[in-house]
Write a structure and sequence with these properties.
Number of helices: 1
Radius of gyration: 21 Å
Distance between the termini: 17 Å
Shape: elongated
Strand content: 35-45%
Amino acid sequence: MGRRSVAVQSALTLLLGLAGVLHVGGQRALSTAGFITIDCGLPAQTSYVDPITKIPHISDAGFVDAGYNHNISAEYMKPESQLSRGYHNVRSFPDTERSCYTLPSLVPGSKYLLRAFFRYSNYDGLEKLPIFDLSLGVNWWRTVNISEAEQPVMAEVSAVIPDESVQVCLVNTGSGTPFISSLFLRPLENTLYPYDPYDRALLSWNDLSLWTNISTTEKVLGNVWDLRYYAPSTVMQTAITTLDGSTSKTIEVSLATELDHLDLMPGCIAIVYFAELQILLGNVVREISVAADGGKHNNVTVPKYLVTDAMYNPEPHPCSSRYNITIKAGENSTLPPILNAIEYFSVMSTANLGTVIRDGMCT
């Protein structure tokens, strides 16, 4: 994997904070200029401000001209402190094969992050879990497979949008009625700030049977070499390493891949983030190298104390249903490797949206 170079086509994104529950409380409020945050199925002319993110949510009336509003089944309803308000209602599309949301007022040629949420919650009383497709314009985005009534499904994609608007479409494939809970759009700029300005989905990943957790309460500085590869301090304050007492000097992570139905062997890119969280004294050394899907371990790096660094593959690697990353200690390392976070992309075809193969932005 390479360091500090430019890469990436439009892709599915996931930023995983390892060994911790992530939040951005106490940091400056992010700018919501250009944000579109839609609570699907909310009555027309209704809006509210999310109590946690402080981001305004609006009704989907005016963005779509089909479908029906539903509240979720009472048995799945929980207080807002336990269930995000965006999951309290949905819009369904039983009468159309293809139903589209039109998101307007975009800047042509700019990069945008789009995120859609789906939580069935037996809104129709039928107890039939649907499978349907999602598309970005005419380009297939992903298949939405609702496998549990109360388990949310999230779809996320970043793309260069060539026009002043973009359509997100739900496609009935004959396996149940499409529906949607929420739809977000976020502009992706070319500069980053001391907080996460993109409202990315930050998910904790913690398995004490595989790894040992380490953490700090000290602030971790951003990537000083290339601000495009940035993770918030709250993400970088936690990390995993090998189990206590283990002789292993390797961390292995396996990530599921969303296959493009046009290309069953899509390209995959992972950005792995490191920061040393412990003060190392004397001859104690921590060296790290990273390899993807059995590739060579190159570019050994020494994580700096409380400073973020990133390693990644500058070109997409072919990948199948899973993408495997191995982090191991360098030859001169006296300590096992660490891993603070992963940002993972799988490439999808957006030929008709003008996506550039090397668009220079990995978030």
